[in-house]
Amino acid sequence: MRPSLLVLLFSLLFSIAGQAAEERTITLQSGDEIPLTVHPAAGGDRLLLWLPSEFGLSPRQRPVAEALARQGIEVWIPDLHAAWFLAAGRYSLNEVPPAAATELVRQAVASGRKVFVMAPGRTAGLALRALRRYQQKYHDTDRIRGLITVGPRLFLRTPQGGEPVELLPIAQASNVPIYILQPRNAGGFWYLRELIEPLQSGGAPVYTHVLEGARDGFNLRDDPNPQEEVLTARLPAIIEQAMALLEPAGGLPPRAAPLPGEDRAPEAAKRTALLNPYPEGVTAPPLRLPLLEGGEKDLAQLRGKLVLVNFWAIWCPPCVEELPSLQRLHDKRQAAGLEILGVEVGDAPEKVKDFLAGKAVFFPVLLDPEGKALASWGVHAFPTTFVIDRQGRIRYAGFGAFAWDSPEMLELLDPLLAE
Question: What is the pLDDT of residues 20-31, one digit of tens each?
C-alpha cells in the first residue's frame, strides 16, 4: 500500500475513533493541582465538566466520554480524590473547597465552549455550591448552560428511618438550569417531587428523566445489571438530549438566588453499630398492605408482639443479603413473641414471587408497589428497619443491612421481648 494511502487510512480511522484522551494538570490559585483527563472533540462548541462521584472515578466513564467526544462534545473529568489525597466514601468530597470547583468551572468556560456540568449523587451539592460562587464572582455566567445530575443526594444528612428531612441550604438557593436523571431503583425516586419543589423555589428550571431498571450510580458500578449496561451504552445520547433541553433555558443567571442561612456541606448521619434509639413515645404509623401470598396484613393486629418492619426491595443487594439473618431471627424468637414484616417496595407481585422462589423466607412479605407506606413511614434508603414494641411504639430504627441473629442484636432485642 502506498504511503499516501496509509496516511489517508490512518486519518480516517483517527476521525472515526476520535482523538486520544489527554492527561493534564490544572493548577488552582491556591496552588492545589488537580489531575484532569480531557477527551477532546474535533469541532463542536460544547464542553461537559464531569465531576466524580463521592466514590471516585470509574473506568466505565471512559467509553461514555469517548462517545461524547465523537459527537463533538469535549469532556473534562477531574480527579478530585487524587488532588486532595482523599479516600473514596460517602462524604469524601466534603474536603474539596467549593471555590476549587468554581475555578474548574472557570477554566472550562475559558475554553470558549458552552459548559455543562455533570455531577452524580452527593457531588451534585458541591456542583450547585460551586456554580453559585461563580455567579457571585464572575459575569460571563451565560457560558454555563446547566447542570446534569444522576441520582442527586441533596440531604444535609441522610434520614435514619422516619427522621425529618433536612436538605442542604443550596437546594433552595440555586437557579441553575438542572436536568435530573433519576434511577427508578433507588430511594430518591420516591421523593423526586419533594426534591424538585425546593430546587424550583430558587428559580431553577428543573427537568427530570426517570431511568427504569437502574440503581444509583448505575453507570459507575462494578456490578451493573443488564438494563444498567444498556442505559450506560445509551448515556451519551441521553446526555445530549439533556443538553438540548437545557440549552433554551438561557444558561446560569447573572445573579445568585438568595441563600437561606449558612452554606453547608453534607453531614454524616449519627449512627451506631446496631440500631439507633428512637425518640420516646412515638407510636408507629398505620401499616395495612396486601400480602404476597394473598390477603392482607395489618400491623395493628400484632399489638402485644415485638415487630420488626423491614422495608426492602429486590434490586437492593444489602436488602437481599440480610434476608437469611432475618429469617434465622424469626425462627429463634417467634415463640417468644417476635414477628417480622418484610415490606417490599415498588415491584409487582409476580416479580417478587419469582425472586423469592426457592429462597427460605417464611415471614410475611407485604407489598408496597406505589411507595405509599414508604412515604408515610419516612423511609429514604434501603433497607430500613423499625423495631416496634408490644405497645405499638417505635423503639429503634436504622438503615443498612444487619446480622439480625448476631449475639449483639439479640442482646438489643431480648430486653424488649421481656417487657
Answer: 899 999 999 889
